[in-house]
Amino acid sequence: MEVACRLTEKARRDYKLVKAALEKGEQSAYAELMNFYRDSLYFMMLKMTNNPQDADDLTIEAFGKAFKNLRQYTPDYAFSTWLFKIASNNCIDFMRKRRMNETISLNIDEQNERGEEFIDIIPATGRTPEQDIIRQQKIETLRELVNRLKPHYRKLIEMRYYEELSYEEISKSMDLPIGTVKAQLFRAREFLYHILKRDQERFREE
């Protein structure tokens, strides 16, 4: 792809980082893109939600979705325009779902903090033996992937998803700011995604 001439110097800088992330797998390129836009994206989410916690979570989600679909980005527009559009759409969906949940007014939460549906956390009396086997295989696969992370990222994943600690509890335990905990958890999930992707590509080649 040719970088459009009309892009600003900042947009061309971002496009170089996108190419470095995609073509060379440079983790520093992802980090730089986050550093450039994390604050401005957060304040946009805060303005839309008027809730600091939601704004923080939605900021991380937006980067996650953008990085996962980075190959869909084209330099017809600035990366920041593309990123903020993803963030805006995600935020609108989030607020729409929240309004629907408030209208329905259930007596139990449909999802727990990790986003698992209620059906997945009640006793498995309704699942078939085949479903239990598949579920256990997925858990074992995830543990194998997590064990391949660097110790710091592995500890974060284990504390958050295995021990079910809150961001605040992890922050105190590891003596890190909450924002840093969330950012590093995002990086850990990205590493897991890339490990899984490489394994799948290697499997197809064999």
Structure description:
The protein is an all-alpha fold and 206 residues long. The chain has 8 helices and no strands. Helix 7 (167-174) crosses helix 8. The longest helix has 28 residues, at 178-205.
Contiguous helical run count: 8
The main β sheet shows up as: none
Shape: globular
**How many domains?**
2
Number of strands: 0
Q: What number is the mean pLDDT? A: 76
The stretches of 5 or more residues where confidence is low (pLDDT under 50) are 102-126
Top CATH class of the largest domain: Mainly Alpha
CATH homologous superfamily classification of the largest domain:
RNA polymerase sigma factor, region 2, helix turn helix motif
Rg, rounded, reads 19 Å
Order of helices and strands: HHHHHHHH
CATH topology of the largest domain: Rna Polymerase Sigma Factor, Chain: A
